[in-house]
Design a protein that fits this description.
By secondary structure, the protein is of the alpha+beta class. Helices cover about 45% and strands about 30% of the residues. It folds into two domains: about 120 residues, Ribosomal protein S6/Translation elongation factor EF1B (Alpha-Beta Plaits); about 30 residues, no CATH class. The protein is built from six helices and four strands. A hairpin with a 2-residue loop joins strand 2 and strand 3. The longest helix is centred in the N-terminal third of the chain and has 17 residues. The chain is elongated, with a radius of gyration of 35 Å.
Length: about 200
């Protein structure tokens, strides 16, 4: 902000702090959805427009994710010349970069809002380090936590010893399998008789 003779000393100090904050370089991440109507061949050109807007405002890139077609959590409606168009899919991508705070605000308010190919966007402060993998691991640990309420008992089965006759074995099989076994045996006997 500019100095004004009508400002008090306290207001001037506040303005100095704001100017210092605006000059301080922060790490930002931009998440964006590009309209699905953009042809895949032209997608890189649209992403290049976002990159050039960041570079124009003095940003330096750290990393980015290539946009991929994704299904939106809920449909979005865009007013195109008085007609509402419904979108259920969009290309999602992200960029991480460093930039002065004031320039980041201008990027959001001037460049991203006016880009007709950007369905929606989010710009937030973050850290230079990769935090996604750490958060995901911590989340996975919570999801894998298992609480037991009782103790499993081991059941032992004792078998009666001794020899089993052929008739007892066939009877046991018949009891287990049922009538289907008899039908199969009868078919086999019929086949043997025919041969």
């Amino acid at each position: 902000m500019l100095f004004s003779p009508n400002m008090t000393a306290e207001e001037n100090n506040t303005n100095d702090e704001i100017s210092a904050d605006n000059a301080e370089v922060q790490v930002y991440e931009l998440g964006y959805h590009i309209l699905p109507t953009v042809v895949a061949d032209d997608l890189e050109g649209e992403v290049a427009k976002l990159r050039s807007a960041i570079e124009k405002r003095g940003g330096s890139f750290i990393t980015e994710g290539t946009p991929e077609m994704t299904t939106l959590s809920y449909p979005m409606f865009v007013n195109n010349g008085g007609k509402k168009t419904k979108y259920e899919q969009a290309y999602f991508g992200w960029m991480k970069f460093e930039m002065a705070a004031g320039e980041a605000i201008a990027l959001r308010d001037e460049d991203l809002v006016t880009n007709a190919q950007v369905l929606r966007h989010i710009l937030f402060k973050t850290t230079r380090e990769e935090t996604r993998a750490q958060l995901q691991t911590a989340q996975n640990n919570i999801l894998r936590e298992i609480k037991t309420t009782g103790v499993l008992e081991k059941k032992t089965v004792t078998e009666e010893g001794g020899e089993v006759s052929q008739e007892q074995l066939e009877k046991s099989i018949k009891d287990l399998v049922g009538d289907d076994k008899e039908a199969e045996e009868k078919k086999e006997e019929d086949k043997k008789e025919k041969e």
